[in-house]
Design a protein that fits this description.
With 435 residues, this protein is of the alpha+beta class. It contains 20 helices and 13 strands. Strands 2-1-3-13-6 form a five-stranded mixed beta sheet, with helices on one face.
Length: 435
């Protein structure tokens, strides 16, 4: 879900994380449920991923219709994780953080460990403003549990999907894939588009991108008998025999040059500008593509890999800033947003899949989804039950995992190091931190 254009910003994740840890070490508690606000403030600032800003501006207007006097401002935040972290560092030090923070599963522990997020668990447990923890699908809410705290509420039960630029497939005479495809089928189609277009179109946006999107590679690791962290042995295992086979498969669009090159790994505009014929992404990005795409396109489930599910799962969430002076007002918006007759009713036609048991079974998204892409509902119904979510990683080490994997990817793609050597070094580095 997070992306940017320049390689240097990806390398900067290591230094940005270090700055975050140093700059916020002295911040105060993030304990929730004990705010002393006498009443909710009426002005609320939401920091949101740029691709989701139009949606949340509409949600804000709907909220304001029934909550007189409230003024919701939605402001875009940087797409790239290093840039976003750096912005939060600066805003945190000046107490200028938004009241509601865009958060996502693989970033949550980094933000929480540096005292940027408010603990929502007491309010969720007590049903404050009608919002209850028990309403949510445990697997998705658990992504925002850190110890005995809950620092975010998932917006959507997101799964990995593949967007298909059907107009480009037809233009170059390549059969449009079907929902029962395999990774080999996907790669074969990508190669055909790349060759028939003489390289003018990339057959696929390389799914591994810059190595930060865990949901894109975790199912492949599992399919080859590996994973990231093994809670039984308490070791990182992604460079075992199965892991190396998985990384080799994942890296093929780079190493065999039929996907986007690494220099364009985080460019998020290639699909809509007719430069990519396929792209792996999250269901959260579908609404944005509906606005941007002019040509025919569709969405398919992730292909099977090594005979097993290749569908990852994850979410982005709404969190409240630990430094907000208007936590009550922010929580009122969130309570409305997650209510069946409030924000969820407004959001579901956009493709938001309610992360609640009732929402999955009976949500308006089943009947009110937009007609484009045509296979949306069918794809989501097939994908959610197959979604594979990562095992928990020790809190202290979790923020270092993605940077280590990104470095391994860079070593292979940019410096010619072998896959086994690069990922073994990353695994050894992380395992040393466990001691």
């Amino acid at each position: 879900m997070v992306s940017k254009k320049h390689l240097i910003r990806q390398i900067a994740v290591l230094s940005a994380t270090a700055v975050l840890a140093a700059g916020l070490a002295a911040c105060g508690s993030t304990s929730g449920g004990n705010t002393t606000d006498a009443k909710a403030g009426k002005d609320i600032l939401i920091g949101m991923n740029s691709g989701l800003v139009p949606q949340f501006q509409r949600y804000a207007k709907e909220f304001e219709k029934t909550h007189k006097g409230f003024k919701i401002t939605v402001k875009a935040v940087p797409d790239a994780q290093p840039d976003y972290i750096q912005q939060l560092v600066t805003q945190g030090l000046s107490k200028a953080l938004p009241d509601i923070i865009f958060n996502y599963d693989s970033l949550n522990q980094t933000l929480n460990s540096n005292h940027l997020l408010y603990d929502l668990k007491p309010w969720l447990d007590s049903g404050h403003d009608g919002l209850k923890a028990s309403s949510f699908i445990p697997a998705f809410l658990d992504q925002y549990r850190v110890g005995d705290t809950v620092t975010g509420i998932p917006v959507s039960a997101d799964t990995g999907v593949v967007v298909i630029h059907t107009a480009l497939f037809e233009k170059y005479g390549v059969p449009v894939p079907t929902a029962d495809w395999t990774t080999e089928d996907m790669y074969a189609a990508a190669k055909a588009i790349t060759e028939k277009s003489s390289g003018k179109v990339y057959g696929i946006k390389t799914p591994l991108v810059d190595g930060a999107s865990v949901f894109t590679f975790y199912p492949t690791l599992k399919a080859y008998g590996s994973g990231i962290y093994d809670p039984d042995t308490k070791k990182f295992i992604f460079a075992n025999e199965g892991g190396i086979k998985a990384w080799t498969e994942l890296l093929r669009p780079y190493t065999e040059k039929f996907g986007t090159p690494y220099s364009l790994a985080t460019n998020s505009t290639l699909f809509e500008s007719n430069q990519d014929a396929m792209g792996v992404g999250s269901t959260a990005g579908i609404a944005g593509l509906r606005v941007k795409m002019k040509d025919a396109w569709d969405v398919l489930p992730m292909p099977t890999v090594n005979g097993k599910s290749g569908t990852g799962g994850g979410s982005y969430s709404l969190s409240i800033s630990a430094k907000s002076d208007n936590k009550e007002g922010a929580y009122q918006f969130m309570a409305w947003f997650y209510s069946t007759d409030g924000g969820m009713k407004t959001a579901q036609p956009d493709g938001v899949i309610p992360p609640t048991v009732d929402g999955i079974a009976h949500g308006a998204w089943l009947t009110e989804a937009a007609p484009v892409p045509p296979s949306f509902v069918k794809t989501i119904k097939a994908s959610v039950p197959k979604a594979i979510l990562p095992n928990p990683i020790p809190d202290a080490i979790q923020p270092k995992v993605v940077p280590a994997l990104q470095t391994a990817l860079q070593q292979v793609v940019l410096k010619g190091m072998s896959i086994k050597e690069a990922y073994t070094a990353a695994q050894d580095e992380l395992n040393k931190l466990l001691k």
